[in-house]
Structure formats: C-alpha cells, structure tokens
Amino acid sequence: MDGIVEAKVKGYLRQQLNVNPYDCGAIVAKIRELAQAAGHSLDHRFGGSGLGSGPEGRVASAIVERALGGGGAATAEKDIKIAIERWVRNSPPKGM
Questions:
Q1: Rg of the Cα trace of the chain?
Q2: Which residues of 1-36 are buried (b: 16+ CB within 10 A; e: fewer)?
Q3: Angle between helix 55-67 and 3-15 (nearest 10)
Q4: What is the model's pLDDT at position 1?
Q5: Do residues 63 and 72 lie in contact, with contact meaning Cβ atoms separated by under 8 Å?
Q6: How far is CA 19 from the centre of its chain?
Q7: What is the DSSP letter of 16?
C-alpha cells in the first residue's frame, strides 16, 4: 500500500465527490479489499487495471486513477457515486 496514493484517494473523495470525511475510511478499506482481490495493492498499478479487476473493482480502479490525475474514462461519475453509497451502507464505519 502506498500512503501517498491513499491520501490522494481520500482527498479526491472529500473534495471532488463531496463524501463525508468520516465515511472515507470505510471507502478506502473497500478499495483496498478490491485491490487485493485483483492481486494488487493500493497503488498506481491498481489504478490502471480497469475491468481486469472485476466489475466492482473497475469502479475502485477508476477512483484511484482519477485521484492520481488520470481520466478513468470508462466509468461514469454516476456509477462511482452509486458504488460509494453502497460501500458506505454495507461497511462498518472506520473513521477518518
């Protein structure tokens, strides 16, 4: 896991997607879990994996890619927001 990537993902979630800061921990934990399921750690390589990491991993990969300044063009922002809402609902709170 790369701490800089995690910080950028949290910043992207708070600033661009207007996610509650207390929900960011649960979202990053879910992204980390999906990255591990795809055989990656939470770093720039996972950001480029796209659909190769599965349907739900594609959304997590797009979040990482956009947080690092890439396009993430294959995933619409609406799909990202829907997935984030589902992850927050189904995950225990992790804090900031």
A1: 12
A2: eeeebbebbbebbeeebebeeebbbbbbebbbbbbe
A3: 90
A4: 55
A5: yes
A6: 12
A7: T
pLDDT in tens, 33-76: 999 888 888 888 887 777 777 888 889 999 999 998 887 667 88
> What number of other Cβ atoms are within 10 A of residue 64's Cβ?
28
Q: State both tokens at 79.
A: 């799909």
For tokens 């690092």, what's the residue?
68
Write down the pLDDT at residue 38: 86
Angle, helices 24-37/3-15, rounded to nearest 10 degrees: 130
Closest CA to 36 of 12, 52, 53, 51: 53
What lies within 8 Å, CB to CB, of 68 at 6+ separation is 5, 8, 44, 47
